[in-house]
Amino acid sequence: MREWLLSDSPASRRQARLGRLYAGWLTFRENTLAMVGLGILVALLLCAALAPWIAPHDPYAQDLAMRLKPLGTPGHLLGTDSLGRDILSRLIFGSRITLYIVTLVALIAPVAGLLVGTVAGYAGGAWDAVLMRITDIFLAFPRLVLALAFVAALGAGIENAVLAISLTAWPPYARLARAETLTIRNSDFISAIRLQGAGPVQIITQHIWPLCLSSLIVRVTLDMAGIILAAAGLGFLGLGAQPPSPEWGAMISEGRRFILDHWWVATVPGLAIFTVSLAFNLLGDGLRDVLDPKTGGSQ
Amino acid sequence: MSLLDVENLRVSFDTRQGVVEAVRGISFTLGQERLGIVGESGSGKSMTGRAILRLIRPPGRVEADRMALEGEELQSLSERQMRKVRGRRISMVMQDPKFSLNPVMTVGEQIMEAYLLHARDSRRAARRKALEMLEAVAIRDPERVMKAYPHEVSGGMGQRIMIAMMLIPDPRILIADEPTSALDVSVQRRVLSIMDTLVRERGMGLIFISHDLNLVSEFCDRVLIMYAGRIVETCEAARLHEARHPYTRGLLNSLPRLDQPQDRLEVLARDPAWAGGDA
Amino acid sequence: MLDVDGLNVWFGAPANRVNAVQRASFYVETGESFGLVGESGSGKSTILRAITGLAPDWSGRVDVDGRTIYRDRRDRDFYKTVQMVFQDPYASLHPRHSVDRVLSETLKLHGMDRIEWRVPKLLDDVGLGAKFRFRYPHQLSGGQRQRVAIARALAGEPRLLLLDEPTSALDVSVQAEILNLLADLRAERGLTYVMVSHDLAVVGHLCQRLAVMQSGRIVEMLEVEQLRRGEAEHAYTRSLLAASVAGGRTGTEGGAELSPAATGS
C-alpha cells in the first residue's frame, strides 16, 4: 500500500492524487506539535458530534440547589454555574457553537478575500485600484469595533456575529491573495497557459487559486484563534450568542460576576477557548510545512 | 605540504525514501594549485565544497576519514573555531552575487566588514585595504563603487566585488562554486582571469566547481570529474581532451561545436557501472 | 512564416521608459530555423514576448503566416500557429498540476478530440513514456520537464515554435538530448523555429541563419555558414565568436581556422 502510494510513476490520476496526499500526511506527521493540535481538534469534533451522548447532563437544566458547586463535585466534574447548570455539559454542547462559528467564518472570509485579491492582482489597473481601496477602508477600522457596529446594526445573534466577523476578517486574505497573485502572474507557467489561449477566468480559478489556497489555509488556521476569541468577545459583550445558549464567550461573561469566589465558572470555558485556539495555531504551523509549494510535500 | 587533504568524504541525507548519498567516498588533496571539480547537477560537486566548510545542515550528514586544512583536522573543530576558519582561511564565492551580497549595505561597508571580522585593524586601514582590493579586481572607480549598493552594480561587477570580499582576509583556499554561471559569456572570462591572477599571485589553493568543462580546463591545473557522488576521473586540465573515461568523453562530445557542425549531437549513454566503481 | 518589421518594444511608463528593442527587422521562411543571439539584456527574449503578446507595449509590424498581428488582439488561430518554449523548465510548469493535467488542459483549449489518446501520444513524441503521465513536476528532472514543456507547446500542432533559451538551464548532456529532440521534431513536422540563445554554438547547431543583438538592436544578420568561415563583420559578433570558440578548444582536435582571440576582456 505504502509502495503504491509513494510510487514514482503512478498509473492513474487517482493514484497520483492519493500519493500526493499521503506524502503530505507523512510530512505533517513528523511535526509532533501539529499532531497534538490536530488531535485536539479531532477531539473537539467528536465532542460536538456526540454531544447528546457524552454530556452527563442537559446543558440547559437548571438546579438552583446545586448552584456554583466547585470542580470535582460528584456528578459535576467541572462544577456548576450560577443557575446550577453542569459546566462540563455546557462546554460539550458549546463546542458545537464554536465549530459552527469557525466553519462559517472559515468559509466566508477567505473565499471573499481570495476572490477579491486574485481578481485585483491578476486584472491590475483600475480593478486593482478600486478593489484594494475598498479593502483598505475595511482594514482601517479596528476589527472588533467594526464587528460591534455590524452586530449593532444587524441585531444580536450568532448568525449576525458570524457575518460581522467574516465581514471584518476578509481584507487581510484579500491582501495576501493579491500579493501571491502578483508574484504568480508573471511566472512562466502562467505565460505558457496564456499562450494556449486560456482566458482570465480559467487562469485565475485553475492556475492561480490552487497556489494561493495553501497560504490562505495556513493563514486561516492561524487566524482561527482570533476568530474564536472575537466570537467569544462578542458573546461576552452580549452581542453574540444569547444567554441560555452555552457559547463559551457568553459563559465567561456570566461567570465574570463570581470570578473572585467561584473562579472556575469563568476559567473553565476560558481554558477551553485557549486550548482550541492553541490547537488551531499548532495545526497551522504544521500545515505551513506541508502546503508550502516550494517544498511540495514531496521530499 | 598540501593545503587541504580530504580522504573518503561522504555526504548523505536522510529522507523518507531512505538515505540518499550525495557524495560517496571521495579523496583528493589540494596544494597551491587550481583544482577544478566538474560534473552535472546532482553529481555532488557543490556538496563537496560545502562539506569542506562544514556548511551542510541536518538532515545532511558529513563523514570523512580525514579532512585536514594544513594538517589541522577540520572535523574536530568546534563550530566556534570553524567560524574562524570560514572566511579567514577558506573562503567561498557562490554562484549568484545577487544573493550573496546584503542588499541594504553599501559595497564598501560589506568589504570592510569582511576584513574587520578577521583582522584587528582600524576602520581607516580597512577602508584603504578595501579600496586596494577593489582595484585588484579591476574595478576602475573604487571610490564610487564603495558607496554603491549591490543593486546598483552589474552582475559581473557584483561577482568581482564578491571575489574582493572573499580574498580580503587573505585566505589560504578559495572555493568558487559556479562563480560565473550567472554571468554573460564575455564577462565570464574577465571575472575568471581576475580571480585566476589573484589566486596565483597569493599562492592560494583554488577549488573551482563548475559544470563547464571548457572553463575548467582553461582556468585550472588539475580536474576531478565527478559522477553520482564519486570521482570517476582525475586528469591534467590541459589534457582534458585526452580524457579516457566514457563519461568525460561523453560530456565533451555532447557539446555542440561551431567549428564542427554535426547533424545529431552525441548523447551520453549512462552506464550504471560508472556510479559503482572507483576511478 | 514570420516577418518582423521595425519592431520597437518598451517597458514602463512614458516618463522612465526603457526601450528594450529598437527597430528590429527580420524574416523567417517557412521551415527555416532562425537564431537570435545576444547577451542578457540585449532584448532577444523580449522580441519573442512581443510577438506572443506577453510584452504588451510594442510598435512596428509583425506578420505571422501572412497575417498581421495586432497589439492586443490575438485569436485562437494565432495560438494554434505560434507556440513558445520557455527558458527555465523549473518555472514553466505549474507546480501543482500533473503532466496529465497540463497536457489535457492544453489539448482542450485547442479544441482537440480524443484527449485520452493524445496525451500518451504527445509524451511519446517527446521521448517520455506513458509512465510519466501522472507525475508532478517535482518528480521530474530538468530535462524531463523541458520535454513536457515542449509537448505542451506541440499540443495545438503549431507551425512556428519560439524557443527562448530552451537548454540554458540544463546540463550539457541533457542539452544535447533536447537539441536532438528539437531537430527531430522539426524534421518530422516541418516546424519553423525561432531560437533565442546566448550560446553561439547552440544556435549554430540548430539554426541556418541568425541575428546578433546588442542593447536592443540587431547589429548583424548572417548565415551560420558565414559565421563558421569567420566572415562576421561586426566587432561584437566577433567578440562573441571568440568567447565561444575559445571555449570549444578542448574538444577533439581541429577547427583551428577560427583564431581564438580568447579572454574577451
Molecular structure report:
- Chain A is mainly α and 299 residues long.
- Chain A has one domain (15-295): MetI-like (MetI-like fold), CATH 1.10.3720.10.
- Chain A has twelve helices and no strands.
- The two termini of chain B are 24 Å apart.
- Chain B has one domain: Rossmann fold (3-Layer(aba) Sandwich), CATH 3.40.50.
- Chain B is built from eleven helices and eleven strands.
- Chain B has helices at residues 45-52, 79-88, 97-100, 107-116, 123-136, 142-147, 155-167, 185-201, 213-219, 246-253, 272-276, and strands spanning 4-15, 18-30, 34-38, 60-63, 66-69, 72-73, 90-93, 173-177, 205-210, 222-227, 230-236.
- In chain B, strand 8, helix 8 and strand 9 (205-210) form a beta-alpha-beta unit.
- In chain B, the strands form two sheets. A six-stranded mixed β-sheet of chain B has the order 7-8-9-3-10-11, with helices on both faces. In chain B, strands 1, 2, 4, 5 and 6 form a five-stranded antiparallel β-sheet that branches.
- Helix content of chain B is 37%, strand content 24%.
- Chain B has 279 residues and is of the alpha/beta class.
- Chain C has a single domain, classed as P-loop containing nucleotide triphosphate hydrolases (Rossmann fold, 3-Layer(aba) Sandwich).
- Chain C is built from nine helices and ten strands.
- Chain C has helices spanning 44-52, 76-81, 99-109, 115-125, 142-154, 172-189, 200-206, 224-228, 235-248; strands at 2-11, 18-28, 33-37, 58-64, 67-68, 82-85, 160-164, 192-197, 209-214, 217-223.
- Chain C has a six-stranded mixed β-sheet with strand order 6-7-8-3-9-10, sandwiched between helices. Chain C has a four-stranded antiparallel β-sheet with strand order 2-1-4-5, covered by helices on one side.
- In chain C, helix 3 packs across helix 4 and helix 5 (142-154) packs parallel to helix 6 (172-189).
- The longest helix of chain C has 18 residues, at 172-189.
- Chain C is globular, with a radius of gyration of 19 Å.
- Chains in contact: A-B, A-C, B-C.
- Chains B and C meet through helix 8, helix 9 and helix 10 of B and helix 6, helix 7, helix 8 and helix 9 of C.
